[in-house]
């Protein structure tokens, strides 16, 4: 297995970026350039962070989530159109890139957190922007065993976790379907860049089964479509003494399947399954794209069609390291009701 990904292209297969002016307000108007005085722009961005001033400023309070859901329909028209088109069909790459979204008001950005389990609890412009965007793809969810069930999670390097195959690590993060072991894994994963990697080494890598499938042999397709694989929970879930039952890696329409694999946690049960999984990884590597996320970039990955990972990088832990917000969404909220206590947003 390679020590690092070596994509041969930048990111040509990602759907064309949609750029939006930084003046984002909860009224839904799409304003270009300077609009009003500084105090007015700041007020509007803070309204975007907490549209109704509800829930005492707590993101995980369902009243704030309800207010965010109401505000989500007031996003700029082009943004709504892009998100809904992506929800309808994620295209050949299964990735949508949105650019120039606001991440702060006029206040300076805080230092990058560097603690295990870092999350956002109090509304900020960045946390609100990613939440309202993801609510146009489905219902926002979290997992109680992952970062205490916070809806907006920080993806940051953590001292001592460099070698971890998790969002806290800085070694090569293998291509994977997010929470592949879970029956109610998210359908979409949103990653909003709050601070870019100063070294430029950390790149989001994605690859779609729609690109990789034509490169697979008929034998590999057959084996990958059979329940000959097991997947463990990721380190971010802590100690869970369980794995999924044996499952197929490819499922659904054989000509346009979904994919279910984590190359650091999915284990083939026999030699043919091992060979087929190696062939799949090779196909993903051949069709992979890499992207250095910039501040204000929101990358949305269709978690049914596309695997994602990250190249290795060297953090400095000086407050200036790469910082992403992560939010999950799924399409069928009713399906997961049995796992969501009190009809909330957190799966147990």
UniProtKB/TrEMBL annotation:
Listed A to Z, the keywords are: Dioxygenase, Iron, Metal-binding, Oxidoreductase
Write one Gene Ontology MF term.
dioxygenase activity
Q: Where is this region: Disordered?
A: 31-52
Signal peptide (from-to): none
Please name the InterPro entries in this protein's record: Clavaminate_syn-like (IPR014503), TauD-like_sf (IPR042098), TauD/TfdA-like (IPR003819)
Q: Which SUPFAM superfamilies match?
A: Clavaminate synthase-like
Pfam families in the record: TauD (PF02668)
Determine if Oxidoreductase is one of this entry's keywords.
Answer: yes
Superkingdom assignment: Bacteria
Domain annotation TauD/TfdA-like: ranges: 74-328
Q: State the similarity comment.
A: Belongs to the clavaminate synthase family.
**What is the name of this protein?**
TauD/TfdA family dioxygenase
What species was this sequence derived from? Streptomyces sanglieri
